């Protein structure tokens, strides 16, 4: 854990989903090959299935941007069908116990909730996907709000987090995430950013600008306990 900054205890914590709370590869990779097999069968895609690492490198992006990178020559119809199939396959995959949260996520969230921290999710994913994970893994009751770009139609995560803060009257929050979009969302709204390094999806520059970087989710409790009162 890199912590050279003295933090202030927040009123709330806002979490990214993929690569922060949820080990996305445990759900995405089993669906990956199925998705492209179906796209080929339906005539929406030709050629080899894109490399898994390419797909994982896109996590945190809005879905339209993911398909522009993964299926750059795809038609709008192909991209729309990929959206439908990905959601369907991932929701089916949540029934598999191998699709998991990161270690100590549930326990840490429960402890933060007991300490009176208001908890939220802000994700660039689809509404059914983001809420489906929270429901399937038993953490939904811990959150005051679960926000997704898919539900609210926001163009950036900065906009999504601003909507969340305004709607719930949150003044001070820690934005917790693993991608540059999370750093931008926190800093763009004048909040503290806790960068998560344990997922390993992004490059070294992804978390530049974070106030603190953690290597395990449960380190949030230590940071919270060491933070000074507002």
TrEMBL record:
Gene Ontology process terms (BP): DNA repair
Gene3D superfamilies hit by this protein: HAD superfamily/HAD-like, Putative phosphatase, domain 2
GO MF annotation, one: phosphoglycolate phosphatase activity
Name of the protein: HAD hydrolase-like protein
Organism: Paenibacillus campinasensis
InterPro entries according to UniProt: HAD-like_hydrolase_sf, HAD-like_sf, HAD_2, HAD_sf, PGP-like_dom2
Organism ancestry: Bacteria, Bacillati, Bacillota, Bacilli, Bacillales
CC terms in the record's Gene Ontology section: cytosol
């Amino acid at each position: 854990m890199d912590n050279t900054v003295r933090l202030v205890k927040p009123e709330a914590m806002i979490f990214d989903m993929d690569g922060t709370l949820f080990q996305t590869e445990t759900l995405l990779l089993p669906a990956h090959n199925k998705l492209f097999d179906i796209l080929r069968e339906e005539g929406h895609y030709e050629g080899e299935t894109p490399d898994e690492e390419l797909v994982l490198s896109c996590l945190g992006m809005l879905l339209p941007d993911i398909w522009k990178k993964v299926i750059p020559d795809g038609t709008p119809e192909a991209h729309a069908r990929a959206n439908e199939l990905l959601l369907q396959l991932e929701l089916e995959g949540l029934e598999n116990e191998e699709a998991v949260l990161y270690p100590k996520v549930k326990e840490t969230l429960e402890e933060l909730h007991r300490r009176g921290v208001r908890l939220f999710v802000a994700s660039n994913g689809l509404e059914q996907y983001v809420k489906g994970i929270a429901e399937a893994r038993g953490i939904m009751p811990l959150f005051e709000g679960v926000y997704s770009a898919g539900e609210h139609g926001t163009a950036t995560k900065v906009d999504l987090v601003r909507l969340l803060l305004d709607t719930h009257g949150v003044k001070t929050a820690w934005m917790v995430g693993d991608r540059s979009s999370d750093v931008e969302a926190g800093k763009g709204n004048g909040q503290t950013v806790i960068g998560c390094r344990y997922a390993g999806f992004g490059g070294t520059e992804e978390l530049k600008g974070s106030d603190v970087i953690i290597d395990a989710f449960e380190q949030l409790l230590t940071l919270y306990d060491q933070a000074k009162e507002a």
